[in-house]
Amino acid sequence: xxxxxxxxxxxxxxxxxxxxxxxxxxxxxxxxxxxxxxxxxxxxxxxxxxxxxxxxxxxxxxxxxxxxxxxxxxxxxxxxxxxxxxxxxxxxxxxxxxxxxxxxxxxxxxxxxxxxxxxxxxxxxxxxxxxxxxxxxxxxxxxxxxxxxxxxxxxxxxxxxxxxxxxxxxxxxxxxxxxxxxxxxxxxxxxxxxxxxxxxxxxxxxxxxxxxxxxxxxxxxxxxxxxxxxxxxxxxxxxxxxxxxxxxxxxxxxxxxxxxxxxxxxxxx
Length: 269
Ligand SMILES: [Fe+2]
Ligand SMILES: [Fe+2]
Hints:
Elements: H1 2-24, H2 30-52, H3 59-88, H4 99-121, H5 127-152, H6 158-183, H7 191-220, H8 230-255, H9 262-265
Helix pairs in contact: 1-2, 1-3, 1-4, 2-3, 3-4, 4-5, 5-6, 5-7, 5-8, 6-7, 7-8
The structure holds fe (ii) ion (2 copies).
Organism: Paenibacillus oryzisoli
Protein name: DUF2935 domain-containing protein
Pfam families: DUF2935 (PF11155)
């Protein structure tokens, strides 16, 4: 079932967010650290179960699992928003979680919960709307990643910081283009425009994905100076791969054979 693939991907992501948040808290914030650990274990458990289920599992059992996971996603979202509030009100001075990073991870939790809700209730958006909305979501995510990388690299890594800044600018531009396209709905939702939109986004996502892969390898080999956790480098790389897979799936739906239940199948991976 499609929701299993979403859960396998995003529960690992949520688990890692818990770890990143924990690492950014101060030692004295023991309650927050405990709460982060709590979510780590919850999503680790969910991840394990999602790999134990298969297409042969009783659909009713999967549906119940989806509901349970969606509730866990709602809870970690609330935790992240609470942390964001604390940081913004300067209640955690000296902590190392950027407000934008916490907001970003809460948007991913919200996306995860919405996806599960859509899949569970069968209320999927029509393809042209899904193409625009998913791209707006992921382009902003990619733009944020470029900004995080730029700010967590050591300032002396001038070339890499510069590259990260260029990616940030590139994705900000793509995001605004996507918002413009969205504003011109439904007139803008022609096949040629949507096809070009996907092609253009893909080019930049491939470049960013490759940059993240290089950064990840350099960080793992301890070849560059930064305060980026190797797992965070891999995490943002995987999210770019996810976006690419979604773009390719949309492209296939647009150009492929749209006769058989496209609406139901268009995000079926
Ligand atoms: Fe993430
Ligand atoms: Fe992310």
